[in-house]
Amino acid sequence: MKLGLQPIRRLFVISLVASMAIFSREAASESLTLTAGSPGGGYFKAAAAFAEYIKESVPGIETTVIPGGGWANVERLQASSRLADVAVLENALASMAFNGKGPKSTKYDFRMIAAIRGPSVAQAVTPVNTRISSFEQIAKDKIPVRIATFERSQLATAQALAILQQYGLSKEKIDSFGGKVMFTSHKEGIRMLMDGQADMWFTGGSMYPHHQYIKVGSKMPFTLLPISKKAAMAAGSEFGQSAISVPKDIYGDNNGKNDAYWSPATVVTFGVRTTMADDLVYKITKALAKNKSKFHKVHKQHKFYEPATAWKNVGGVPVHPGAERYYKEMGYMK
Predict the structure, then answer these.
(1) Residue where a domain terminates, one of 226, 243, 266
(2) Residue 225 forms beta bridges with which residues?
(3) CATH number of residue 40's parent domain
(4) Using CA atoms, how far apart are residues 111 and 273, in angstroms rounded to an integer?
(5) Nearest Cα residue to 119 out of 326, 314, 249, 287
(6) C-alpha to C-alpha distance for 199 and 217, rounded to whole angstroms
(7) What end-to-end distance do the CA atoms of the chain give, in Å?
(8) What is the number of structural domains in the chain?
(9) Please, what's the largest Cα pairwise distance for the chain?
């Protein structure tokens, strides 16, 4: 059977209209990829929550959250990669990346949205039976201390080594005392401490109270070595961090003691591609602020997030113009 000219034309028009409708829907939809940490971890949950707020608040936006972490997240924001649009970044790492002080000495190009989680602080966990009371004592008495810390690639390790350096305790100096600095996982380092294979676990930045150190307290009494304000500020300046005071006896209910001391403040942030449209960054910044109370419930450290101050303590990296517009509109920035 042959079709007449009119039916053919009608079919053509219908097909054309349908194609245009599909194209219009696809063009109206935009996708944002957020790179976080390990699936199920705190950073991943923060990114997943943000992704939901964006979808709910910004019409036509689809979001995807992918595993990541550390330097990989910075790399993914670069124009040469564009594997992600938003990244979870620690302020210290962000500072190093932006200023070209990382492993590759490369200056990375990205901007900030907000500081969203924190603070994490340095903690030098030392069993009471070691009779070590301060970093000054280690340096003066040349104590052959065995210090366990995170793997060499970890930011918290670089921070811990920077603090030790403020007391004249380089890895080489500790070696010369007959001691050693051991790079390992968090879990393994705590096992070594409890088994007597290490005299100290030293993190340059972890949340408190931390469940791993509560575990130590269930086996033995311990102390946190004090850090001076001068040492904390000097070490923190290497990573674009401010120094904060850590309260006395933060493990007082868990067999741990400490005097109030100072630490560089490690804060988790949301970074963004420099080239992302100002209007879109404005909208997603507003979406996060709008959902502040919900975001606080995702993790107790999220209570650190306050829109009025979220543009601060982001590692010295510039805030994206779109986010800046929101903060100024609300009267948070001048």
Answers:
(1) 266
(2) none
(3) 3.40.190.10
(4) 6
(5) 314
(6) 14
(7) 75
(8) 2
(9) 102
Closest CA to 241 of 165, 312, 153: 312
- Whether residue 284 contacts residue 54, with contact meaning beta carbons closer than 8 Å, is answered with yes
**Residues 77-136 pLDDT 10s:** 999 998 999 999 999 999 989 999 887 899 999 999 999 999 999 999 999 999 999 999
Give the domain range for residue 104. 30-117+267-329
State the alpha helices, DSSP H only, in the chain.
5-28, 42-57, 70-76, 91-98, 135-141, 155-165, 171-176, 186-194, 211-219, 229-237, 278-290, 292-298, 321-329
Single out the residue in 244, 266, 288 at which a domain terminates. Answer: 266
Are 262 and 275 members of one domain? no
Residue with more model confidence, 329 or 10: 329
**277, 111 contact by CB (below 8 A):** no
- Say if residue 175 is in the same domain as residue 255: yes
- Give the closest residue to 145 by CA, choosing from 157, 156, 136: 136
